[in-house]
Amino acid sequence: PRLIGVDNACEWICGGQQKRSADAMKDGAVDAVVAAANVVSSAEHLLQQVLDGKLDYQARRERLQAAMEFSPIEKMMIFESVRAVVGAKAGRHYPAPMEAIKSVEKGIFQTIDKAIETEIKGFVKMAKSPVARSLVGLFLNDQLVKKTASKYTKGVEPVSHAAVLGAGIMGGGIAYQSASKGTPIVMKDIRQEALDLGMNEASKLFGKQVERGKLSSEKAMQGLGKITPVLSYGELSAVDLVVEAVVENPKIKQSVLAETEAQLKEGAILASNTSTISITHLAEALKHPENFCGMHFFNPVHRMPLVEVIRGEKTSEATIAKTVAYAQALGKTPIVVNDCPGFLVNRVLFPYFAGFSALLKDGADYQAVDKVMERFGWPMGPAYLLDVVGIDTAYHADQVMADGFPDRMGHDGENAIDRFYALKRFGQKSGSGFYQYEADRKGKPKKLASAEAQGLIQSLHGEHQTFADEEIIARMMIPLCIETARCLEENIVASAAEADMGLVYGIGFPPYLGGALHYMDQMGLAAFCEMADRFKHLGKLYEPTQAMRAMAAEQRTYHQY
Ligand SMILES: NC(=O)c1ccc[n+]([C@@H]2O[C@H](COP(=O)([O-])OP(=O)(O)OC[C@H]3O[C@@H](n4cnc5c(N)ncnc54)[C@H](O)[C@@H]3O)[C@@H](O)[C@H]2O)c1
User: Fold this and answer.
1) Is residue 231 in contact with ligand 1, taking CB distance under 6 Å?
2) What is the best residue among 165, 169, 243, 385 to mutate for testing ligand 1's pocket, by most ligand atoms within 8 Å of CB?
């Protein structure tokens, strides 16, 4: 603050961004920016200025070590606006930026030695906080996940030409991502309109990069040129890897996969972007199931960092390695998981949705649930998330999950998702679901309350009941956490680090909690099991496993950082 002013300093400190030298110069953090070759001569020149009495560094040092002077009004105005800006950005779960402002606010009225003491106290307080533990845990887990992925790809030839089947939300996104990262891709659909839409979306995304100054128009054109839209299979004979992203229907997928396999060169890889359908089951239609695996992207593809690579019963390790390499080439973080309905992320997400449906059944107001879960740290509440995922997608996936795990995920009677599906209220894509959607000025869907949806749910489940925030959080989080523990126990996912990173990167699990397993560790498994037992009347999704109880008794944790 003494050097570049309080506003700038708070922005530098709380933003945590790297600064370019030109910006540092502009803000006054440095005296000069010189070419690397001139560093020594520039320093000598500076020293000469000091020797010649042209530069009084001592006066400057004194100023930088002294307390600053502000009138109370000035101080109030500066810090009120800084606090508002930083508070809005950091949110309620990340206390460090606000603590930093507190230190600055106190420190500017102290001499530098005292100010440093103030800063140290604030830093130590933050470093010992549970949030710091979670975030340090995330950092370590991220390293571990990346290292694990790199082990798979040692010596693997990169995919030089790819293809995607389906030019829908996901297919279009995959085509853009591949092209923008430099791997040419054929995009196949059965409808010209779908291809046009897919190309349009890709072109918009490239356009945004140009707008933001991240890409020249020429490079954007070159990128777009890397996508070849086609209606026939002709172009597929040359590709190394095909991602299938057609509609989520096992019969259609099996027939498309078998048709595609017949077009491919020997050893080419076929991967399905299915959200839930078992890879081993889809492989039954193929002559070379060893060349087939799951490659599950998340929506929107260009923004979500995770890709689940799913190993079916017959998938070869070479297929996994090549698919992991392709995911890395797309700039994604791949996690290899074993096959089961929903794999890791959706297997854990659907119990969370089941918790939501049970709350609605007991009369909870979904807008209240959304608010509580958003305040708790999720990027969006469950009703909004279902609308974004698509009620149709959620309905089909829910059936796959219920078939796969009938004792835990099967449900009796019609719920809101079933009712909305029957009425074709598919969520954001159809303009209505739990909420109503209207295009805003930029053409983006804007979420509005829907009296119709409220009425439909009340006709199903009766009048609203009020639930305490803690109860909503517990009822939503317990099934998700227990299912994550099950995935680890059943070796669907190989490590606690991969499980937690999968949730943070795939569904935006609140980072300040570090992932589902870290969350239970932090709470203490014994306390978690006790909490789950209070809700055991809600069914098997709320029942901790034997292994969890044993770990609780021995006070063990999932992570040992
Ligand atoms: N939407 C999501 O959030 C999401 C997230 C992860 C995975 N997925 C999975 O990705 C897949 C695609 O989902 P989507 O949301 O992109 O669906 P979508 O309906 O937007 O797109 C599907 C596309 O496939 C095309 N298609 C149908 N049959 C075809 C065929 N025989 N050959 C080529 N193209 C064909 C359709 O014309 C359509 O353009 C599904 O398996 C879905 O479960 C979706």
Assistant:
1) no
2) 169
Q: Report pLDDT digits (tens) over 36-66.
A: 999 999 999 999 999 999 999 999 999 999 9
Q: What is the pLDDT of residues 377-412, one digit of tens each?
A: 999 999 999 999 999 999 999 999 999 999 999 988
Q: What is the CATH number of domain 159-344?
A: 3.40.50.720
**C-alpha 273 – ligand 1 centre gap (Å):** 8
CA 72 vs. chain centroid, Å, equals 43
Q: What is the 3-state secondary structure (H, E, C) of 244-270?
A: ECCCCCHHHHHHHHHHHHCCCCCCCEE
State phi, psi for 549 to the nearest 5 degrees.
-65, -40
Q: What is the DSSP string of 444-459?
A: -EEEE--HHHHHHHHH
167 lines ligand 1 (CB under 6 A): yes
Residue identifier of the C-alpha nearest atom 38 of ligand 1? 168
Q: Which of 161, 296, 461, 518 is catalytic?
A: 296
Comma-separated ranges of CATH 3.40.50.720 domains in the chain: 159-344
Task: Kindly indicate whether the domain formed by 346-491+493-553 is annotated with CATH number 3.20.20.220.
Answer: no
Residues of the chain with CATH 1.10.1040.50: 346-491+493-553
Instruction: Say whether 296 is catalytic.
Output: yes
For residue 154, what is the enclosing H or E element? none
